[in-house]
């Protein structure tokens, strides 16, 4: 369960189908409807892909214990991304990849999120926006957990700065960056 490099994030079917033919091992599903998530994960698994799902962005899914249980048992996702510590804790208890999404809005928000992360102990932390290498480094050093950079990643330089800042991986929905 080692995530590194580029983690392509999909928001639409055209990009999803392209990723099924790619060399990427993992696919991040950001936005979809509850009625589609099962089929998307099944298609991805038939293409030998592992799927990480952002629970907070699935329309029709309540991101609580029962919603996550449904994703784990029925849909059989490989990992969960969420801003909610309780959701991340459920993923950890079920031994799937647990990624805590952290929005670095200001110092107060960062400190609040770091306290929650120290309680939850996710497998990875996704820092947004991912274009602030100093924050990536601070989160990594403070938590001793691998950091994924996401949000506002628009260029190859953004990817390189995030990785140079200590991120182990970068998530982006920009297709032109997926092959870096």
TrEMBL record:
Keyword Ribonucleoprotein: no
InterPro entries the UniProt entry points to: Aldolase_TIM, GlpP
Chain segments annotated as coiled-coil in the UniProt record: none
Molecular functions (GO terms): RNA binding; transcription antitermination factor activity, RNA binding
GO biological process: glycerol metabolic process; positive regulation of DNA-templated transcription
SUPFAM superfamilies linked to this entry: GlpP-like
Name assigned to this protein: Glycerol uptake operon antiterminator regulatory protein
Lineage: Bacteria, Bacillati, Bacillota, Bacilli, Bacillales
């Amino acid at each position: 369960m080692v995530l590194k490099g580029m983690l392509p994030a999909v928001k639409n079917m055209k990009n999803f189908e392209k990723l099924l033919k790619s060399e990427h091992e993992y696919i991040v599903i950001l936005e979809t409807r509850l009625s589609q998530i099962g089929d998307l994960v099944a298609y991805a698994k038939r293409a030998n892909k592992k799927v990480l799902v952002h629970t907070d962005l699935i329309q029709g899914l309540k991101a609580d214990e029962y919603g996550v249980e449904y994703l784990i048992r029925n849909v059989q996702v490989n990992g969960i991304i969420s801003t909610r510590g309780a959701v991340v804790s459920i993923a950890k208890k079920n031994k799937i990849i647990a990624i805590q999404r952290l929005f670095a809005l200001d110092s107060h928000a960062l400190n609040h999120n770091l306290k929650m992360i120290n309680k939850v102990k996710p497998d990875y932390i996704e820092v947004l926006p991912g274009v602030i290498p100093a924050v990536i480094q601070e989160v990594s050093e403070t938590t001793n957990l691998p950091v994924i950079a996401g949000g506002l990643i628009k260029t190859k330089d953004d990817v390189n700065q995030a990785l140079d800042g200590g991120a182990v991986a970068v998530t982006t929905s920009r297709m032109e960056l997926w092959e870096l």
